[in-house]
Amino acid sequence: MRPTGPSMDVRTTAKRKVLISGASISGPALAYWLSRSGCAVTVVEKAHTLRDGGYPIDIRGTAIEVVRRMGILPRLRDAHIDSRRCTFLNADGSELASVRPHIIAGSVEGQDLEVRRGDLATALYGKVRDDVEFLFGDSIDTLDQSGPAVDVTFHSGRRRTFDLVIGADGMHSATRESLFGPEERFHRYLGYCFAIFTMPNTFGLSRELMLWNAPGKAAALYAVGDNDELHAFLNFHRPRPPFDALRNPDAQRDLVATVFADVGWEVPGMVSAMRDADDLFFDTAGQIRMAHWSSGRVALVGDAAYAPSFLTGQGSSLALVGAYMLANALATHRDHTAAFAAYERDTREFVAMNQALVDNGAARLFPTTEQALEQRNTMLRALVTMPAAPVRPAHSALALPEFAPDAVTPVP
């Protein structure tokens, strides 16, 4: 299927030069659409190579249309994990309920996708690697907007000038901090910390998730296929974020081990595996909420501007949709100020609705009290005994515009 996108009739030789910081999801997606609309795009990524592997992520609703227009939907459908069941366990490890995963996730079975994060990143990179300049193993050091463009000094020492710079560098965005100030100004903490890592599949699990709960604590083992590796997940409630541990892996391991000491099921083995894991990812569940997503010639996209948290299941989808909307705005408006304003105007309500999912009970899988846990368990038992009902999607939708017919963005 021919991808739907902007016209390739580039009528100017003065290509707009755009630097994107971050080569995860929103960065390469934005690079694809900007390149097709006639921009000269450079992507800088602090990692030395493309990051493969990683935990499963969801592609839902409007984001499905984005990847269809990019021409990568068939590849992602082939990579769909297609989990068969989600088994909930009591505190003593006994089975509480077993349900189809889409019922819990709020996804639309047969339409929405779940893939390994690395599979999506690889598909996006494959679409742009021949048309976009990638600078791996480097990062932005300083941004100077005092002139008619953005003078960028990289950590490596190289210096370049760009017409626009886009921060697609995640929830803990250095681009955002350099422009708007410390993350604490925009971070909305949601009361949870989590650790994700891989461990050997010694349980014989296949295409399934097992979730253990106690008040304020949860542990999950996720087999995304039939291989010998599991994704392990330890989540716990904490009233205040542990700032002292966020940049200290040893402190993270100690904190998780302390929280999960003396609990049952397979958690002791998971904690031991976490101690030895070389891919531990520890963070807080939180959102980024900002009054504005741009300053001068620099804008933010994806988690850097509006991280919704893993509790919504919408992070990757917002990244894909936001990248499309930003690129479309830049293709439609020759003036970057007007483009950034249109991007915010047309995308903000969609972002707000999806971020609000966590306020509408999206954290019910991780109850913090005995009463809330029992209410959640009662709901699960009802799902098993009652006839199946249509699942209402957890996400909110956005009608995507077609790219501007001319789709040419010369330097203003």
UniProtKB/TrEMBL annotation:
Q: Which Pfam families match?
A: FAD_binding_3
Which keywords has UniProt assigned to this entry?
Monooxygenase, Oxidoreductase
InterPro entries hit by this protein: FAD-bd, FAD/NAD-bd_sf, FAD_aromatic-hydroxylase
Q: Does the keyword GTP-binding apply?
A: no
Recorded GO molecular functions are: FAD binding; monooxygenase activity
Residue ranges the record marks as coiled coil: none
Its transmembrane ranges are none
FAD-binding domain location, by residue?
17-358
Keyword Cell wall biogenesis/degradation recorded: no
The name on file for this protein is FAD-binding monooxygenase
Instruction: Record the organism.
Output: Streptomyces malaysiensis
